[in-house]
Structures are given as structure tokens and as C-alpha cells.
Amino acid sequence: MKKKSLFAVSALCISASAAHAQSSVTLYGLIDAGLTYTNNQHGQKNFQATSGDTNGSRWGLRGAEDLGGGLKAIFTLENGFSIQSGSLGQGGRMFGRQAFVGLSSETYGALTAGRQYDSVVDYLGPLSLTGTQYGGTHFAHPYDNDNLDNSYRVSNSVKYQSVSYDGFKFGGLYGFSNQAGGFASNRAYSVGASYNWGPLNAAVGYLQLNNSGSTFATGAVSDDATFSAGTQRTFGGGLSYAFGPAVAGVVITQTKLSAATGIGAYASGTNKGLTLTRGDARFTNYEVNGRYNLTPALAIIGSYTFTDARVSGVSPKYNQINLRTDYSLSKRTDVYLEGVYQHVSGTGNSGITADITGLSASSGNNQVAATIGLRTRF
């Protein structure tokens, strides 16, 4: 009897070990807290505690189950929050950053469904400083007009991402409106591709939103949209090249709006509430960036962006300079100091002012912000 019991326990342990080897669930996260000084927010100086100046604070669950033959079932549930207040991000969604499930093949790529990043973010985003571990929210192009800082995700979406073919990858996404009788209202679709060859990286991407920012909350991009517009089209390309401890890059994007009515109340986490007139608008962004590792722990990072816009009957010209130094205390934790300067001209009487992403707008044509922060991962 004792031998039978011992055999049963041993068999149970072996089965548990095999199940553990075939599937896994990982808890992960990132916490980013800072102190930011701004010289002008609605005409006043401000010194404030901030969350997610470089990367949005988050925690998530990521899982995979081995189905055999190189096929896996995968999922990700990722929550965004403010470390300063403990409140939910992304309009109060529990898993507002990402929430998807799908299948991944070592041969054919991954097919997933849920709330996900678009292809411009997936492929072109890593070549820009904003939205990456090297830059941050304040480095974004005006209003994050091209979404490289991940101001919004696409709900109700189906996405395909290929495996790497000698450094070449591609993918696409479609976000459903989920509206009866309005299949094309508040939907989204995008495509992108990237190529890596040693020190060289190149990428392109395209995104189109229909009726983004509508009050129909179950659409592809609704209450967290940057713009309220009949159609939004964003496309761009970029290159980066590594020279030993240095990396230099360039990213060019353009966002075109038709039947535009405003810059959404949730744009980049701050209340913009700007009304756009004349219907059509355009933002063309030219970014050059670079970083240099003085030591394995210390890096200097910077970028310059020129944005040529056509909006509300005027032609604003934005010049933005971003500088940052980052020191790694360990593999998981770093401290950083960054400064951002933005100047806008050609605004006429449109009401457009300098407006660094993630902060309240200036009352004039210039705005300066400086942040010291701590970031840790788990």
C-alpha cells in the first residue's frame, strides 16, 4: 500500500513538472516616478510629482502554453496606472495598455486578438526616442500626433506579426467598430515592416483611423483618441545605425486629418480641449536622434524635432530639443535627468501655444520642462 502511495505521489510530481515545462505565466512591471519643473503652464510656473515621464507605470501578466510542433497559445494582460495617485490609466481601463490572446508559431508568426498596439508603434516606434526606454513622454512630437508615444491602443483588433526572415519582419492590424449598421465608423487598420542588418535598422508604417474620438465607446479608438476627425492617416519611415557605443537615427512621419473637429480631451493624458477649424489638418515631423554610452552604466541621449503643421487656417512651426542623461544603478533600476524645450511660431490667432506632451499647455510660444526621475522594473 505504501509503495502504491509513493508511486502515485511520484507520478503526480512528474506530471506537474511536465505541465510547468510546457506552460508559463510571468508577472512583470515597470514603475517610473519623477519630479518635473515647468516654466509655464497656463501662465504659471509649476513643480509637480509625475508618473511615467519616460515609460508609463504598469504591471502585467504574460503567458504561453506549448501546444507542440512549434505552436504556442499566448496572452498578455497589461495594466497602466499612476504611481503618484494609484489611479488607473488609459481612461480607467483595468488592462488599458494591452489585453490580447492568440497563437504563435515558430514558422508562421503570431495571430492575436484584443486591445493592441498598431503597426506604426510596433515597427517604426523603436527608432524614435519617444515611447522607448531612451526618451519618454515629453519627447513626443506635438500632441503625439503620430502616436509614437502610444497615447492610444486599438480595441477590438486582430493582428498578425511575422517571424524574422533574415532580419525582415512585417505585420498588420485591423480594429473593428463593433457598431451595428456602422462597420466603417470608428474602425482602424495599419501595416508595417522593419529590417535589421547588423548595425542598421530600418522601418516603415501606416495607420488609418475612421471617425476616431467618437463617443461610441466600443469602437477601435474612441475616448482615448488624440484627435476627433472623420479620417486620420499616419505614415512614416525611419533609419538608425550603430557606431560602437553610439547610435544615430532619423524618423519622418506625417499625420493627415480630414473633417477634424478637435484635439481630444484625453490626448497624451492631459486635457487639451482645442477646437480645430477648417476641417483638414496636417502634421509633418522630422526627428533626428542619438545616444552615446560613456560607460556601460552612463548614457547621454538627445533628439531634435521640427514639425511643420497646417491646422485651423494657420501654419504652426514647432522646434523641440530634448536632452537626457541616464545612469543605471543595476540591470533593473536607473535614475535620469532630462530637459525639453519647445518653441512654436506662426500660430496667428488660433489659440495654439507651446505644448510639451504630457504637460499642460503654455500661455505663450515657448515652454521648458526639466525632470529628475527613478525607474525600476520587475
Automatic annotation (TrEMBL):
Listed Pfam families: Porin_4 (PF13609)
All residue ranges annotated as the Porin domain in the record: 8-345
Range of residues in the leader sequence: 1-21
Localization terms from the record: Cell outer membrane
Domain of life: Bacteria
Record keyword Transmembrane present: yes
Subunit composition and interactions: Homotrimer.
Keywords assigned: Cell outer membrane, Ion transport, Membrane, Porin, Signal, Transmembrane, Transmembrane beta strand, Transport
Species lineage: Bacteria, Pseudomonadati, Pseudomonadota, Betaproteobacteria, Burkholderiales
Organism: Paraburkholderia kirstenboschensis
SUPFAM superfamilies (UniProt xref): Porins (SSF56935)
Topology versus the membrane: Multi-pass membrane protein
This protein's name: Porin
InterPro entries: Gram-neg_bact_OMP (IPR050298), Gram_neg_porin_domain (IPR033900), Porin_dom_sf (IPR023614), Porin_Gram-ve (IPR001702), Porin_Neis (IPR002299)
